[in-house]
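for the writeup, i need someone to sanity check this before i put it in the appendix. the sequnce is what the collaborator sent (i think, or maybe the updated version? ugh). structure was predicted straight from it, no edits. if anything looks off just tell me and ill rerun, i have time this weekend
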Amino acid sequence: MTLKDLLRILIINGLFANAVNLIFLTSWGQHLWQDWRQALLLGVLILVLQTLLIARLIQPYRPQLRLASTFTGSKLLVALGVGLVVWGLTQACTTLGTGTSLKYPTADRVLKFGLIFLFNSVPNALLEEFVYRHVPVRYGQIRGFSTQQILLLGVAVTFLFSIAHVSAYLFRDHTELSSLTQALRGPFLYGLAFLFVYMATRNIYFVTLVHAFSNNPLYLVRSPFLSTYYLYTFLFVTILWMITNEVLARRASLRRSP
């Protein structure tokens, strides 16, 4: 895989994401967006098309991308377990920090969340994390980059990640051009956070869950500070994960040494 190949994958995927949001220029697209059930069905169709596109783009590089070792059942189970810990800790810290109380969501809210989370939030986050995190990191490893160089590459790719959201902000969310830079700051900063999570854990399922829940959360408490506590919590858990990996790696190295 060359730099040209990497850029082709990133740019084509970004153009696809921006082109899809052109449907919100039409009254049909705006009307459809107001009905979450119709929007969900359209989203599934778009995700299928995007998956096929990505599969075609990465086809020549599948062995280099190590898909078999990236998508394993054990990594999924670990991600689900740690994800539940993050979810619980976020609410516990929010409750202790702000004094808020439990407020259970309605059955309709849970159903809506579950459908959107499983069929839109998670697959969309998985595709984005694969393209914008896993592929660039693997490219850096293939080219023999140092960790610092891979991080710099990741920052550059995160800029492209934020640019891929331009049409969504303009045509779907009706963001003013004068406010676009400020709006794109969110995807860029969160993209950097997701890059850190992926590089620290090397678990694409975990960073996918973190990403998906950032976009579509469901909590048992209500507070305007939940998103802040969530950010700090998943970063804290990621740091603990990274430290644990380092300790285990050193112990394994000591056992191998004579």
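The chain has twelve helices and no strands. The longest helix spans residues 107-142.
thx in advance!!
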